[in-house]
Amino acid sequence: MKKQLQSILIISFLTACAQTTKVEAEATLYDDEALMKHIKTLSSDKFEGRKTGTEGNKKAQDYIVSQFKSLNVKPFDSKFKHNFEFARRDKTFDATNILGFVKGVEFSDKYIVVSAHYDHLGKQDGKIYNGADDDASGVAALFAFAEMLKKNPPKHSIVLAAFDAEELSLQGAKYFVDKIKDVNIVANINMDMISRSSKNELYVVELNLR
Ligand SMILES: [Zn+2]
């Protein structure tokens, strides 16, 4: 059920929103097994819960960049890693958004942003908080989008954004929004915790900000 919903969502995104030139049959849109593999990898102990500013978080950054490269996603604004700094509770943090770019077939000044956050809680009292659902699931879905867009080039350009420091009060998203004030973003699909639901439902919220 959930999978069907996700497929429906993804297909409506591709047809209605991105207005792709050609949408392939549903079965070939993305690789299910790869999707699970990415969730398992990002939430494995090797990534130590991906807390902002840690080695585990940096490993996640490199993993995302390498997946983007292998899926033919280009760097946004000439680089994948967009570093920034922020202060919170008398502490300064270094953080990094990973931004990829898929050029639209009809290159215009309109952009669609598809996003998820890759940081999680890290270690607390010696225990790793792996964050499979929150939000390795959304990052894995970003790769699925990249795979689909590679097969079905979109009409409008798309930014694939993996934000850092969401768990520290949405810092990555705030920095991104601040930086791209002059960019004409017509829609954003943000994916957070999409891999499970006790009711077997996918919860979708539509916000009209204009
Ligand atoms: Zn989250």
Residue ranges: pLDDT <50 for 5 or more in a row? 1-5, 7-12, 14-21
Q: Give the CATH topology.
A: Aminopeptidase
SSE-based structural type:
alpha/beta
Order of helices and strands: HHHEEEEEEHEHE
Number of domains: 1
Count the E strands. 8
Mean pLDDT across all residues, rounded?
Answer: 87
Assigned CATH superfamily: Zn peptidases
CATH architectural grouping? 3-Layer(aba) Sandwich
Helix content: 25-40%
Rg (C-alpha, Å) = 17 Å
From the N-terminal CA to the C-terminal CA, the straight-line distance is 33 Å
The CATH top-level class label: Alpha Beta
Topology, element by element:
Blueprint: H1 2-17, H2 32-42, H3 55-70, E1 74-75, E2 81-88, E3 91-102, E4 110-117, E5 122-124, E6 127-129, H4 132-151, E7 157-163, H5 171-179, E8 184-190
Parallel strand pairs: 4-7, 4-8
Antiparallel strand pairs: 1-3, 2-3, 3-7, 5-6
Helix pairs in contact: 2-4
The chain binds zinc ion.
